[in-house]
Amino acid sequence: MSSPLSFGDVLALVQVALEIYSQIKDGPELLKNLGEEMKSLKLFILSVKELLDEETNSILARLRPMLTEQARADVKNLERSALPIKDLFRKYNNDQGPFGVTFRFKTATDIYFALGYNKETLNEMRDTVARAKQRLMHTLQLMGIFGTNALLSKVGNGGPLPRVVPKPPVKQENGTKRIAPSIIYVDPHNLGRSRVAEAYTKLVREWTVRTGGISPVSFVHSAGFFAEDRSDCNDVLKRLDLQSTMEFSRLNRPPLEVAMAALFENKYFNYPYKAQIRQAMMAQRSRGVTKNIFKVDYILVFTRREYNNLLQLRKALSGLYGATAVPEGKGHIIHLGQYLAQGKTVEILDAMKDNNGNLSRENWNKTVGQIKTAVKGFLKEELNWKQPERFAKQS
């Protein structure tokens, strides 16, 4: 049986892009970054293709058509994301400017590219490829080909894709397969509450899938509204007329150890994936929001401040970039506190420090309890998540 997923077109396109790139000598630094992205993309495609070819009989024969079609669409999206980079390489290598004009000297080409392609444009090309790769990984993960943490540790670091024993696809009651939504948690600096919520959602996802249920989410992430790390819209954020603000900071720090301990150091989810998820979370560093945040299905916040601030950001990005930044039907902003009390919204605040001004495990235990209750409420009410039986057998 041949694989229903074909990588021929995108692989050929990337190969052409790399052949053109190899002819470029002393190009701008941003052009070199795009070249490295194409090399990484080629390795990614070859790795995925190898895995799919080897596992065809045991996995793909059991896939539902709906999920296979989604994977095909993801591969096509990967091709579309790489096309502008290939065209950019070709134009630069041919000293070509607007309307087919050819420059006589490389100096003129460099000047045109400096003026016609700003840093943000080229970075967006690279980020678009990264998002396309990520989307395909998530779809393949739903197929049961990869484990969550094997993806984080192998693919995320540019290594070869892992070989694991695949789980069969999970059926819905009507025999079809759905694509679960994507979510992101946002707090001020991406150190505490948002990281706890992200980690807990990943625990719930593993628990659900390993007990034979349907994953409630396809992609879960977190960010800090006032964190400058890895944000591509700091300039937009700092121009917002916010009613409630904090100092923007560049911390590049892992999650708070006490917050992670409050979530992980207990008797719940005592399976190997628990330690793996914790390790993966602690390896990550704080990051800010990006211009693409409203392309995620749900944006979950803990206080009214972040709720109002994100409304402001959505308005600003919509004014700057239109529907490309704020697609219809995406970017629903939800206050998690509405799942804690009937008929009212509770602020889920950062855990208070103790009387000596130190981080308090006891206080973080309470905050983590609130977050867990709110996240489960959201998953059940909005995403129709079915909580596994308490003693359900896990794979």
- In DSSP terms (H or I, runs of 4 or more residues), the helix count works out at 12
Please bin the fraction of helical residues: 40-55%
The gyration radius over C-alpha positions equals 23 Å
Oligomer: single chain
Organism: Xylaria arbuscula
Protein name: NACHT-NTPase and P-loop NTPases N-terminal domain-containing protein
Fill in the keyword field for this structure.
395 residues, 5% strand, four-stranded parallel sheet, mainly alpha
Describe the structure.
This protein is mostly helical. The protein has twelve helices and four strands, in the order H-H-H-H-H-H-E-H-E-H-H-H-E-H-E-H. The chain has helices at 8-22, 29-55, 65-93, 106-116, 119-142, 148-153, 193-210, 234-239, 257-264, 272-283, 304-321, 361-383; strands at 182-187, 219-224, 298-301, 332-335. A four-stranded parallel β-sheet has the order 2-1-3-4, sandwiched between helices. Strand 1, helix 7 (193-210) and strand 2 form a beta-alpha-beta unit. Helix 2 runs parallel beside helix 5 and helix 7 packs antiparallel against helix 10 (272-283). The radius of gyration is 23 Å and the shape is globular. The relative contact order is 0.10.
